Amino acid sequence: MNIVDIIIKKRNNNEFTKEEIEYFINGYVDGSIEEYQASSLLMAIYFNGMTDDELFNFTNAMINSGDTIDLSQIEGIKVDKHSTGGVGDKTTLVVGPILASLGIKFAKMSGRGLGHTGGTLDKLESIPGYKTSIPFEKFIEIVNDINISIIGQSKDLVPADKKLYALRDVTGTVESIPLIAASIMSKKLAVGTDIISLDVKLGNGAFMNNIDDARKLASLMINIAKKSGRSAFATITNMDEPLGEAIGNSLEVIEAINTLNGKGPKDFTELCIDLAGEIIYEAKMAQSIDLGKDLAKAQIKNGKALESLKNCVKAQGGDIRYIDDPSLFKLAKKRLEVKANRSGYVEAIDTKGLGILSSRLGAGREKITDKINHSTGILSKAKVGDMINVGDVLAIVYSDFADTSKIIEEVKSSYKIGDNKKSLKLIYDVIR
Ligand code: URA
User: Rounded distance, CA 176 to CA 198, Å?
Assistant: First the structure.
């Protein structure tokens, strides 16, 4: 077999065999296939796509490039949820505890933030003492004991994705729908959960910008799971404005705690209840999605979901006083209100722009090695469709910078105010 022939095959829009795909993935991971050859192949895939069989084989070759995580020592139904990435997306911190409080096992391996999207691990590390890296046996013990543990992904999980993602990032091939599907599903299927909930974000703060692409990505991911004998479903949800208000690590944890106390922003609370309800139904703990949602709401109301978050934080070394009293979180030195200078309706919000600005304030990273500041970020107070008067607060910026004038102007210009009242849907579709 020869990599040049394989590149030419895809360039000419022909179908790969399983062996050719394995040859490529293995050769790229062990370094015998050069970066420029892999780049060329990725671009050919970007333009010509992959058939269902190719995508399945590609995903499996990626999974087989590293360790797989056996969760069979965990008793009961094991659930994973994944978001394709957005701004202010802290749903794991609310949905996980709701499920755990009902006895569903939430054995979650999360990632770090990169670019404009945040990562659950960074958020959790704003709680003093919380350890995202614990021995695997301890992880299993915690899930068996309290139904929930959230840790970092093992370094050896799908090494092919780490290399391929970094290459896609610098070769203009991130946006290939089959490559996104393989990247996400390789990491999900490498871990032995029973139910996979996929939150496909749609909008100007997400990878997917139109509903057809979002549906396509959702269907491809579900097909890969089905072909692997696993259960997955996808919810396509809005990312044309930040989810909830908080963007940035401590701010997002505070918002998640408030939500578990029944005092969260409306959109964020609704999405968490919906996703939890869907999963509860899939786990056969409710006879309909609506009944699943009722159960989720009840676990917030009776305080048991918050108790589950506390259990998780305690089991992983975190200081639970912060969960009892979120005012203990250290926030940035400056709290600056960004005010509207015209009246009208909020017509659009540059969601990705706000994610990037929060990252620039220190809440995120450009490179995976960058250090982050947990105390900075943005509270986005206005939603699309809101009526705004001159002087109303659009956002609050938490910054440790001496000079914030430029960033304040940039935050302000992320809100488009005009004469048209628009409204956004929170959930576009559920695909099974
Ligand atoms: N998230 C992933 O894990 N991979 C992608 O390619 C895109 C989003």
Answer: 18
341 located within any domain: yes
CA–CA separation, 353 and 146 (whole Å): 38
Ligand 1 first shell, C-beta below 6 A? 84-85, 165, 180, 183-184, 207
Which residue among the candidates 110, 183, 197, 399 is catalytic per the annotation? 183
pLDDT at 366 over 80: no
Asked if residue 30 and residue 13 are part of one domain, the reply reads yes
Query: Which has the minimum average pLDDT: 29-33, 180-184, 402-406?
Result: 402-406
53 flagged as catalytic: no
- The pLDDT-based confidence of 365 (bands split at 50, 70, 90) is confident
Quick one: 314 and 351 in the same domain? no
In a domain, 61, yes or no: no
Nearest CA to ligand 1 atom 7: 180
Residue ID of nearest Cα to ligand 1 atom 2: 184
Tell me how many domains the chain contains: 3
User: Is 349 within the bounds of a domain?
Assistant: yes
The catalytic residue among 78, 81, 82, 297 is: 82
Chain-centre distance for alpha carbon 252: 13
In 194-341, alpha helices (H): 211-227, 249-260, 266-282, 289-301, 304-315, 321-324
Tell me the CATH number at 158. 3.40.1030.10
**CATH number of the domain encompassing residue 34:** 1.20.970.10
Range of the domain at 361: 331-418
Together in a domain, 385 and 356: yes
Same domain for 201 and 348?
no
Can you tell me whether residue 275 is helix, strand or coil?
helix
Q: What is the pLDDT of residues 386-432, one digit of tens each?
A: 999 999 999 999 999 989 999 999 999 999 999 999 999 999 999 99
pLDDT of amino acid 113: 81
Dihedral angle over CA of 255, 148, 274, 253, nearest 10: 10
CA 376 to centroid of ligand 1, rounded, Å: 25
In this structure, the answer to whether residues 363 and 310 fall within a common structural domain is no
Q: Is 72 inside any structural domain?
A: no
> Is 187 assigned a catalytic role?
yes
Ligand 1 center–CA 183 separation, angstroms: 6
- The residue type of 106 is F
Ligand 1 centroid, distance to 184 Cα (angstroms): 5
